[in-house]
From TrEMBL, chain A:
Ligand binding (sn-glycerol 3-phosphate): T11, R79, E80, Y125, D229
GO cellular component, one term: cytosol
The protein's name in its UniProt record: Glycerol kinase
Documented activity regulation: Inhibited by fructose 1,6-bisphosphate (FBP).
UniProt-listed Enzyme Commission number(s): 2.7.1.30
Residue ranges occupied by any Carbohydrate kinase FGGY N-terminal domain in the UniProt entry: 3-236
Cited function: Key enzyme in the regulation of glycerol uptake and metabolism. Catalyzes the phosphorylation of glycerol to yield sn-glycerol 3-phosphate.
From TrEMBL, chain B:
PROSITE patterns: HTH_ICLR, ICLR_ED
Domain IclR-ED: 71-255
The organism's place on the tree of life at top rank: Bacteria
Organism of origin: Actinoplanes xinjiangensis
InterPro entries recorded: ArsR-like_HTH, GAF-like_dom_sf, HTH_MetabolicPath_Reg, Tscrpt_reg_IclR_C, Tscrpt_reg_IclR_N, WH-like_DNA-bd_sf, WH_DNA-bd_sf
Domain HTH iclR-type positions: 8-70
Protein name listed in UniProt: Glycerol operon regulatory protein
GO biological process, one term: glycerol metabolic process
Amino acid sequence: MSYVLAVDQGTTSTRCILFDRRATVVSVVRAEHPQSYPRPGWVEHDAARIWRDVRRLIPQALRDVDPPEVAAIGIANQRETVVLWDRATGVPVAPAIVWQDTRTDVSTIDADLVKSRTGLPPATYFSATKIQWLLDNGMRDRAERGEVLFGTMDSWLIWNLTGGLHITDVTNASRTMLMNLATLDWDDELLDLFRIPRAMLPAIRSSSEVYGTAETVLPGVPIAAAIGDQQAALFGQTCFEPGEAKCTYGTGGFLLMNTGTTPVRSRHGLITTVGYRIGGEPPVFALEGSIAIAGSLVQWVRDGLGLIGTASEIETLAGTVDDNGGCYIVPAFSGLYAPYWHSEARGVIVGLTSYITKGHLARAVLEATGWQTRDVVDAMNADSGLALTALNVDGGMTADNLLMQIVADFLQVPVVRPLVAETVSLGAAYAAGLAVGYWSDLRDLRANRHRAGRWRPTLDSGRREREYARWRRAIDCAVLFSRED
Amino acid sequence: MSHVPGLIQSIERSSAVLRLLAAGPDRLRVKEIADALGLPKSTAHSILRTLEHVGFVEQDTRTARYRLGRGLLDLGSTGIDANELRGRALTWADALAARSGEEVRLGVLDDGAVLVVHHVFRPDDSAQSLDTGIRLPPHATALGKVLLAYSAPAAASVMAGVLSPYTRRTVTDRGDLARMLTGTRARGWALSVEEWRPGLAGIAAPVRTSGGLVVGAVGIAGPVERLTDTRRQARPALVDHVLAAARSISRDVAGS
């Protein structure tokens, strides 16, 4: 028997999952790591602690398996988070700056230049300004002397596992705001713009190839994949054809659509990103749109309003009514994102009458996630010229049966839940297994895919479009309300 | 402190805590409760934590004071929301479908029927539609037999009505059903063979919350020849998978 080991180094925890050839989960181990918020807007991780977690978790995941039975290791990781470490000692020189961190400023950046080169609208979210901040705060001299290295979490773990290999994969590199989408290499002009020395950057490799073998923890086992977590979910959901898409529903939602081997530039503020690249094959691109507030709206109903005791009860409450009663909630808690882009907009609840009960509000909460998904999908369809035929879903909110039905109804396409819910880890395992011949090709991977559930659209189109028009008016209200006098 | 021998002291004390909280409109601190009942503070704290676990008291997170919990308002229900149950069962139900190769359903008793609260497709990519929300006859399905076996009132109510025949194998005799329920309790799982649909069988086991209370049933369904052997007995490996899933879900539910 042999297996593939996936390491999913996420924002709040690290998981190691062992898969067999049929993509069945053989073992799962996980460890949470602390989030550090030293100042408002700052979010940091201890990269050394994360490496220690990985080193401890891998043997636990292999409790019933001999190390030689592991055919390959694949890594999926939180994206954009910046780790800087000492080339000679391997010790991080500063706390890792997490993707959520907003300490940096992007207001003076040439947005058109950055967007045309990287496919990304300038945002504090991406790595470049975080690296720049660390350089400007004491690291510049050492970095210019070549003593300090940069990497996202994939690079950091691979460097430690291999004892000094400094690489990243193209999906992670595409989130730094430093990689040129046309050349898939670091862009010299952007490096100048952000004043980042090339010597500190890792080499950019594909997402699926043998980068090297582990020197420690699992000596001799090939390290054969690195891929950003959302792209890993796309790969794990086997969205290999243009037009196939997945949405991961958590506190927010991440929707990625495969757009094939040419990058699609968005006219609706979606992100153009690399989906994956297998060895020397052409890269596959994706459009990415995020739903800022999904599960976090349910959390607000639970913790902020106290209408429910647990998140699951939102469905029970929504089930006490047949429709929203004319009530709509726009959860623009920190502005409206794609495709609206109004950072000053604030949330609104509209359509209130004395008829409205908490059941209607609960319904409107779930519908808000449905409509936000529809908004992103509409933008993707328009940008890509492709029409989504089914939405593959994963994440915690897929337990909400009513929400999944609402999404199917609002998108008018089937919503499909896969049997292996661990899509991020599975994507990393697939990419690694492909590289070492554990699985032979994409079709081989596709054969492992099984539907655990499928929601068919049932809402009649007239009613759907009337509801959609009201949602759009509610969006207008959110924008109007925040307008300065 | 008076205590009647033969009665369980911690239950008497818990009852006193509940009466105390019900007596006034004010929320109480641990120390106030301990002082009022003449208990050590650590004992009062353990009792409150246990009552909180079962939903009979709630603690205000800001003031750390206790009040009666919402669980007391719906003592007639099982205390776990059906959608909450699905959320907790999701991973284990998926694993059961993967291991058994059959479709999985999670059911609860609702108004004399089995309400399907979760359904995982048989992992063979054939065309299937979601059964979540449909109702199944309790006397003719493995899920229903499990739920009836652990609920005497529900069993009595079902037996007071007509046991409709769905196939020629559906149990329609009250005595036969009662014996089946006794057997289910003795084994800890139920089997139904072609009692609801010809050619189909089901194996199910109870999902329990703390204290052993049965809050649902989880089971697989599939063709008779796959679920049973030539003597129409459940295949032991499949029973083990179902029992393991039921135990995992129970652990998750009870730990909440």
